[in-house]
Structures are given as C-alpha cells and as structure tokens.
Amino acid sequence: MIVKSLSLGDYRNIEKLNIEFSPGVNILYGSNAQGKTNILEAMYMCATGRSMRTHIPKEVISFGKDSAHIQMIADKGVFKDKINIHIKKNNKKGIAINNIAVKNINELFGTVNIILFSPEDLMLVKEGPSLRRRYMDMELCQLSRIYADDLSRYYKLLRERNTLLKEEKCDNMALDIYDSQLVEYGIKIMKERNRFINETALKAEIIHSDITSGKEELEIIYIPDVSEKDYARKMREYREKDIYYKSTSVGIHKDDILFNINGVNARDYGSQGQHRTICLSLKLAEVENVKEKTGYSPVLLLDDVLSELDRKRQLYIINSIKNIQTVITSTGIDDILQSINENASIFYVKDGVIEKKKKVN
Ligand SMILES: Nc1ncnc2c1ncn2[C@@H]1O[C@H](COP(=O)(O)OP(=O)(O)OP(=O)(O)O)[C@@H](O)[C@H]1O
Ligand SMILES: [Mg+2]
User: Fold this and answer.
1) Where are the alpha helices (DSSP H) in 144-230?
2) Residues with CB under 6 A from ligand 1
3) What is the pLDDT of residues 222-231, one digit of tens each?
4) Last residue of some domain: 243, 258, 292?
5) Could you report the per-residue pLDDT of 265-279, keeping only the tens digit for each?
C-alpha cells in the first residue's frame, strides 16, 4: 500500500499543501520549525484519527482559523481509499472515508497502515510504562478494529468507575457491574496484547541479533498487571483501597513490557544505543507484522531519526526500506541521504510551503 497524495488546508503552519508522494523513498528536508513533522502528523492522523503530539485536536488548526482539513489518498493496487478529516474549533471532528461520513473515529483504523518512528519513540524503553502501552495499543488498533473498539469500551468503563469512586457514598452494586465488565474486556485486551507481543518478539529478536552481529540477544516479554484467572478476585481485593484512593488500581491500564538484553533488564542497565536498537528492531518487526496480517506493506514515516542512529543502524534502515514507501524528514542532507538521493523524491519545506526538488544540493 502507498500514500499517493496528501492535501492540507489551515493545518498548523501550513495554509495550503498538495503533495504527490513517490512509491519509494520521499525526503522532506528543511530547517527547524518549518512544518516537516506537521506533514507526518497529518498522515498519522489519517491512519489513527489521533495526533502523536497532542490529545487536543483543535491544536492542529492554524492560529486564527476556525478549521483544518486533511485529505489523503491511499493506493492499494486494485482500489484507492480517500480519507477526509475536518477538524473544527467548536465542534467534533468530521471524518469521511470515500466520501461516506463515519461516526466512530475507530473506523479509520486499518484503512491505511502507518508506522511512525520519531525521536520520542527512542524513549520507549527508558520512560514509564504508559508509552509502552501506547505503543502496543496504536499498533494493535491499526491491525484490529475489534481491539480498538474493546479498548475504547474498556477506557470508557474505567473513567465511569473512577467517577463512581469519587462519589461521597460509593455504590457497591454499581461497582460489581463495572468490575465484571472491566474484567470481561480486560481479559480480551490482555489476550490480544499477549499474542501481539509474542509475534513481534519473534521478529524483533531476530532483527536485533542481526543488527548487533549476534552479540546481543533481545528478549521481549509482556507483563500483564494481573493474570486472567486472578483478574476478578484481585479487583475485588483492591476495592477498599480503590475507594480510598478514588481510582482503579488493578487492570490492563497498568500493563507493561519488559526488554532484556543478554538476560539483563535493558530499562535499568541498557545503554542509550541499546535502547535505540531495541526501538529500531521493534519498528522493523512491525513492518513485517503488518505485511503478514494485512497483505499490504505499511507506510513508514521516519521523523528525524536517522541522525540519531549510528552508521551501521542507518544502513540497516536504508536496506530495510527498499520495498516499502517511506517518508523521511531531515534538517540537512548528510551523506546517508545523499546515498538514496538518486531514487528518492525530494521536497524542500520552508515556512509551511513545500517545493519539489529534482535533487538535493
Ligand atoms: N496551530 C498552529 N498554527 C500555526 N502554526 C503552528 C501551529 N502549531 C504549530 N505551528 C508551527 O509549526 C512549526 C513547527 O512545525 P514542525 O514541528 O513541523 O517543524 P519541523 O520542520 O518538523 O522542525 P524540526 O526540524 O525542528 O523538527 C512551528 O513554527 C510552530 O510555531
Ligand atoms: Mg520535526
């Protein structure tokens, strides 16, 4: 699958943009703060309905304007999909797929598959568990609409339960109902996460070993907060505590992922370079995952990450993206980008305006 074109209107610092991507490598280059990441953000939003930078949709509307527009056309060979998103200042987002309005934002998942690799991802191993849950969820949601719906349902129930816990006199019967539903959805989500991590681990562990010439053995382990069989009992056990603290302490919203290198916890003992290699392995494993699950290659967005990696890892990426559409952003064109220059489409971004170039100079 490829993204054929992207059009933006009043999107962040971009007043108007029409871009036709090539099916291979596309390089967006330009100085800092010109709009390169904004373009990737808009593409990511078409795949997930969300920005990777903000939870507040209206932040993407250009200052002083009332709404922003995105249109993206994806080409799947036999047919094309057109996605339109209209973000309004005082209203809900309007979304249409092939000119048919969709009510549920989750319907976007699976229409285009996008894998984004950004400098923030490099924190995945080191930072708190919420980033690692977000990683699992964003990848899984793109692969399964059922998962996306179960997850939305779970978080809605969780918010309602937490509201109930904050009430003066907590209704235990209502809590019983919430608990049984949270357990039901929690177990479904847990099973999917477990399957996903096991499948990704198999691929990422091979890639990691490859990149490190067999010196490092990566192990990726899903760490659920609670086991399936203890789920209901533990929720009951923690109820008094939950009422006291007015929040839900047990469930899949506390899950985590453990990364070991040569048997040692990489979060505590790994070097920065090792963390980066883990992320790179995960992203490339995800490319394989999507191909396997959907039959289509995903589109890879590399937001300024090449400069964060050493030469060996840069080359590994360049070799891995040969057959998939990739959009790379960069402030400068170093020799690694020069090396793919010949076969890439080059765009220069300045002040929210994009200009197609024949060659980088
Ligand atoms: N809602 C908005 N309206 C207008 N401009 C905005 C809005 N949100 C962000 N910007 C502007 O967009 C620019 C940042 O764009 P972006 O993050 O895409 O830069 P970039 O080219 O990726 O830069 P870098 O190389 O530093 O990552 C900033 O100048 C910022 O002020
Ligand atoms: Mg940027």
Assistant:
1) 145-165, 172-211
2) 12-13, 30, 32-38, 59, 61-63, 304, 331
3) 999 999 999 9
4) 292
5) 999 999 999 999 999
